[in-house]
Amino acid sequence: MTGDPQALAEVTALFEAYEAAFMRHDVEAVNAFFWNDPAATRYGIADRQHGHAEIAAFRAASAAPDFERRLLDTRITTFGPDFAVALTQFVRSDTLKRGFQSQTWVRLPDGWRIVAAHVSMIDPP
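RE: above sequence
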């Protein structure tokens, strides 16, 4: 079943909380959104992390955002009560490039967590 309304509400709130934590550079909060497991994966613009430890180390070494970011065309789709995909485009104040972000969310025993994420940026058409 797709479109579980309760899961959609939960993941939407978490997605928005993640974005707020990211923009205020709350490293501890951002790390807590990710599955604490060696199988968690994040592919970034010019980086990649395999496992929660690498994700946390990357965040700890990253500078706070020195740009504003506006999300566009955010789409969150649920597949039953325990699985969701969040996709968004973004524009940043420091570049003309268009950004894309995806997050795969799974409800685990300790709550919803991002198990896989990807961020990329491309030149405008």
